[in-house]
Design goal:
Length: about 325
C-alpha cells in the first residue's frame, strides 16, 4: 500500500497569467506558496480474490471492470497516460473542500502520478512530474486552465515562478528569511466562503482579457520587490489591486456573497486580499493591519477560518 501526500496552494500574484494563451505571447510571473493542507492518495494493487478490478473512492465510489468506464477524469487521464492495465484500489482524502481555488484538481493528478511512479520504482524529478501532470490535464483531458497549480503541487515552498513563451518554467524560493515568513503568515488570514464550483467555465473565460492580465503580471513584479523589502503593508495593498484587476477579466470571478465577505474583512482590518483560484467561490486570502488581533477574526468566522503554515516538501510518498 502506497500513501502520497500533496500540498494545496495559495497563489498570491500573477494568477491567470499562467494560461498558454497569455504566457506564449507575454511570459508569466507568479508568487505564492503551498499550505500545510494536503490531499492524500492511497493506492494498492487489487487482490485477485476481490470481485472487482478497480475501485476508486473519493466523494463517490466507482467499481470498474474496464478503465474506459472510469468517470473520474483525473484517474482516467493518469491511467491512459501511464497505460495502466492492472487493477488498483485508489482512495482519496482531503484536508480542504474540493473546487475551492486551492489547486486541488492538479494536486490530485500530481499525487496520483507520483504514487504510480513510486509503485513502478521509477524516479522522476519535480520538473518531469510537473510536465507530466500538465500534459494529462491540458493536452490529454483538454481541461481549461493554467499551469501553475501543477508546479506548486510538485515543488512546494514559498516561491516565485517564471514561465517562458514556450512553457518552460523556473521555480525560485523567495529571497526572504524565516522571521519575515513567520511575520507574513501571522498577518495572513484564509477564510472559506462556504461555496465550491466547477472551475472550467470560469477558467475558459480567464483565458481572455490580456490587457488586465498584463496589469496583473506587472503587479506581481512589483510585489516581488515588496517581498524583498519585507513590506507586508504594501504587499497587502498590491493584493487588493491585483484582485480588482482579476475581477475585470470575467463577471464570474466574484459575486455578491464573496464581495460581502471581502468588504466585511476590510472593515475588520484587512489591508487587501483576493479570492483564490479562477474565481466564483472558495477561499479568500488576506493581509491584516499589524494592529489587528487575528484571534478576533478567527472568533468571528469560526469554522470558516483556516489555520495554516507554509509547506515546503511538494508531493511526497509518506508510506510505501
Amino acid at each position: 500500500m502506497i500513501i502520497c501526500r500533496t500540498p494545496f496552494r495559495v497563489s498570491l500574484f500573477g494568477g491567470s497569467t499562467d494560461y498558454q494563451e497569455f504566457y506564449s505571447k507575454n511570459k508569466s510571473f507568479l508568487i505564492g506558496f503551498t499550505l500545510d493542507k494536503y490531499g492524500y492518495i492511497v493506492i494498492r494493487k487489487t487482490p485477485h480474490i476481490l470481485p472487482h478490478k478497480t475501485k476508486i473512492s473519493y466523494s463517490e465510489t466507482e467499481t470498474i471492470f474496464d478503465k474506459e468506464h472510469i468517470k473520474h477524469n483525473g484517474v482516467r487521464g493518469v491511467f491512459d497516460f501511464l497505460d495502466i492495465k492492472d487493477g488498483f484500489e485508489i482512495s482519496y482524502l482531503s484536508d480542504l473542500p474540493a473546487r475551492t481555488g486551492i489547486g486541488s484538481s492538479s494536486s490530485f493528478i500530481v499525487g496520483l502520478l507520483r504514487s504510480f511512479y513510486f509503485y513502478n520504482n521509477k524516479h522522476v524529478c519535480k520538473e518531469q512530474l510537473t510536465n507530466d501532470a500538465i500534459f494529462v490535464e491540458r493536452k490529454l483531458l483538454k481541461e481549461a486552465g493554467g499551469i501553475q497549480d501543477q508546479i506548486w503541487a510538485a515543488y512546494g515552498g514559498f516561491n516565485s515562478i517564471d514561465i517562458q513563451h514556450d512553457g518552460n518554467f523556473k521555480v525560485k524560493p523567495l529571497p526572504v528569511d524565516s522571521n519575515f515568513k513567520k511575520h507574513f503568515i501571522d498577518r495572513s488570514v484564509m477564510i472559506y466562503t462556504g461555496q465550491s464550483r466547477d472551475s472550467f467555465k470560469t477558467a475558459k473565460e480567464n483565458s481572455k482579457n490580456s490587457k488586465n492580465k498584463n496589469k496583473i503580471k506587472d503587479l506581481a513584479h512589483e510585489a516581488y520587490q515588496s517581498f524583498i523589502n519585507e513590506d507586508v503593508n504594501h504587499i497587502g495593498c498590491l493584493l487588493k489591486n491585483s484582485w480588482d484587476e482579476k475581477k475585470k477579466i470575467s463577471t464570474n470571478v466574484s459575486n455578491s456573497d464573496i464581495d460581502c465577505i471581502y468588504d466585511d474583512l476590510t472593515k475588520n482590518g484587512m489591508i487587501g486580499g483576493k479570492l483564490l483560484g479562477s474565481g466564483g467561490s472558495g477561499f479568500i486570502f488576506g493581509i491584516l493591519d499589524e494592529n489587528i488581533d487575528k484571534l478576533l477574526i478567527k472568533k468571528k468566522y469560526k469554522n470558516n477560518f483556516i489555520d495554516f503554515e507554509i509547506s515546503y516538501g511538494g508531493s511526497e510518498i509518506i508510506s510505501g
